[in-house]
Write a structure and sequence with these properties.
- The protein is of the alpha/beta class.
- It has 2 domains: 12-90, Orthogonal Bundle (Tetrahydrodipicolinate-N-succinyltransferase, Chain A, domain 1), CATH 1.10.166; 112-282, 3 Solenoid (UDP N-Acetylglucosamine Acyltransferase, domain 1).
- Helix content is 20%, strand content 25%.
- It contains 6 helices and 28 strands.
- The chain has a 10-stranded mixed sheet with strand order 5-8-11-14-17-20-25-28-22-23, with no helix packed on it. It has a 6-stranded parallel sheet with strand order 6-9-12-15-18-21, with no helix packed on it.
Amino acid sequence: MDMDNVMNKDAETNASFINVGDDITSGAQMDKVAQTLRDVFSEQGHFDKEQWALFLELLENGSIRVVDRLLDGSWKVNTWVKEAILSGFQEGGMVEWSWQSESFFDRPAFSPRHFTLSDGVRIVPGGTAVRRGAFIARGVVIMPPSYINVGAFVDQDTMVDSHVLVGSCAHIGKKVHLSAGAQIGGVLEPPQANPVIIEDEVFIGGMCGIFEGILVKKRAVLAPGVIITKGTRIFDLVRGMDLYSEVPENAVVVPGTRPARGSYAEGLGISLASPCIVKYRDEKTDSAVVLESALRG
């Protein structure tokens, strides 16, 4: 984008930002731009039009993320990024966005994202939409209809199957398979709330729902129909323990039930949904979830 007048000239925090003609394609320069945007937002609480355009651009190329992986393997939430995204909604208003032969009406800050062949993303026709401010890596396949919201990060070679939702600020790792009908919840408010994180090589079965900041660690397998929220009690039948908010690495999770407590529930024979870890991933599991490489190309 044209960097001329990207920042207000009279703001002291912007004095060392970008000069016209500067190359911002290097990692170091992008880091500098991202840090300056953070400083500007911290001071102003919003972006002007050109600052907003740059913010979306850096979200889309992965220079700014809602979550970052730390050296110890844990995840850090960048609260300011969520707050900045939320500010786009707070601006209000409504504009028309023309898309192919149809028209849509949304907040002025969030147009539909357009892709070109050079992006290396395969989007099959049939009703898919990706909002501005979502990062989609090369090699991602998106089957129709699917929706990927602002602030989401979808990494390389991931399959987003039909009727999948990737909610705002959700992080999807490399070589993940989101099967048909999977719902990955989003989060903007409160800004300090953790987004859903799906690590590398996870397999999410059809009609699964992962919500409220759940962390699914790498190579886990969720069978069709598993629903996990922050309050969901996960039973690890292999290790004999209960878990909340996190699915361990290599865990194979299936839907289960447990009797509801209390005489009233017992009298009616009511059971509650309880995801169960029945094994940890092995060669047999790998063969069951292997995907034909041609599907991802």
